[in-house]
Amino acid sequence: MTNSWDGQINRLSDQISDLRETLESSQVVEKEQLVELDRARMKLRALSADTDTRGLSELPRLLQSIMNHQSMAVIVAGESGRILLFNAVAERLLGEGIKGSFDTLSEKTSFFRPDRTTILGSSELPWARALKGDDIEQTQLFVKPPEASEGIFVSVSCTVLRDHKEEVSGAVVFLLDNTEQVQVEGQIRNLCEYLERQINNIETARSEINLLAEKLEKVKTATIGFDKEHIPIPAIRPPVVTRPAVNAAQARVLVVDDIPVNQKLLIMHLKKMNLEIDTAANGKEAVEKVMQATYALVFMDCDMPVMNGYEATQEIRRLEITSGKHVPIVAMTSYDREGDRERCLSIGMDEYLTKGTPPKKLQEVVQWCLSRHKPVHKEEAAQTVPIVQGEQVLDLDALTESFGADELQDVLRLFLTSTTTLASCLEFALEERDAQSVSHFAYSLKGPCASIGLTKMSDLSAIITSDAEAGRWEQAAVSCEQFKRLYSRVKEQVSAASEKNKWSLITA
Amino acid sequence: MVVDYCVGMPMVATPVDIQGLQDELDAECALELLAAFIDDTAPQLALLSDAVVARDVSKVKSVAHMLKGCCRSIKAQNGEQASAKLEHAAVTGDWSLADEALLDLDSRYGEILDCITDYLETV
Fold first, then answer.
1. CB A428 within 8 A of CB A8
2. Does the CB of A269 have a partner CB in chain B at under 8 Å?
């Protein structure tokens, strides 16, 4: 299975690059608007510098072009700050307060720095500085007129007008409403920061997943190989301390195989364990039988006509979401290629055996599966801790017994942080409809969930994988939502246990 | 995906490890199993030959896979290896290997049948 961590990071990085390009484009648009502003200011300066009467005759035409501008606000003010002329855009942007002076404008309209909270006094405003002789190239303000419910961002430029003695005689103030650009830039910057945080989280998650795998491996009871990068295989058999060992004689198993000789061999071995045995010749029959009866274990051949073992397993797991049951399914197959085991487990099978497995190994697997199964009786259900149908709980007592109290805190902390990141990556991959990445992240969730007894979440991971691979994106999304709901329940449970036991490291 | 057809698995002298079967099961069960093997596999061999001639990848792969499992179930290691080789040939589309593997499988299957027949005569 290919590693999609780098793919995920590359995807996030590409998003950041795209957003930065959008940001640059928006800044280009803003710059284009400012070019007009500069042109107007240059004309004014030229007029102001012109000492003969030709400059004066140009004044009406210039004023007309400036004052009639449809997007640029213009205010012409005298040396005392009295507002002599303003156009319709200025009145729209700044409100009624514009009919007076800059001082009355400041009384009626609030001006803030771009942070939208630091209010500016009248002497700090750009036109006040312009009337003292400073040309203001461009500065940003947030403006809140009296009758407006929301403010706007404006870009302000001021051109000083001087008399023949070079003394300040007035100023022309230009304002451009760039609220939209500012908001878009802000959103893009926030998104880039968020994505960069996601990348950091992924890097952290990778190392935490490896650490989690090491801790889970220490407690494993079966000699199963471990791929730390993928954690595909349950490292431990989740002990079920609260459930008494099931008498094999009470247990019914289902053998699913289309080849009589293979079926016969397995039945011969299983009969020695005093099990009751039913058979099915294909996956479709197997699904029907599983829905009609309660089996302690299903031995599933993979390659069968009508419906193969993979499809049958997926269907059984899908039906179990609503039934609340979980029947252990063991692959019995002649497939022994590299990756076959992982494929079986990722589909939702609990164990994998090849045909011709020695009886001793077969017996171990049967005992393990039977120890997880308890026939549900009505009177027993009433005495147990109430569990809402379909909900998932951690067996913290059993986990404490397996790991020890101190180690358990570490395991749970690592599990929570890595699962949160993996689930986030999984959601992202689902949105992108990237089957390979969905498969990778769901697969990475499956192992740890199974290892600490969260079988329903483990099953959902397998279902999400198969739905994504089959292009059933809506169904995959539904399963992902179910996974998140169950995970929320687990986090609440850990949080409650953490508070009760005064654990210091667990944050759900 | 490459099928690892039992690379490294040595050829064994005995076509069927009947003793091993009897150790795992019992004589009666071993007998029953061997009889079932013949019933299940004989018709498949005929189909297999036609499928190889027709270059039917799906059929060859399916039947070879089934024969591999059956041979493994009765501890017929040589037969299992020959079936695996044919399965591999089908998966990789190597028809010259498939032709060679079919001949090999025919030969191994014949040995298996002889071995089982000999055993049945002693029971």
1. yes
2. yes
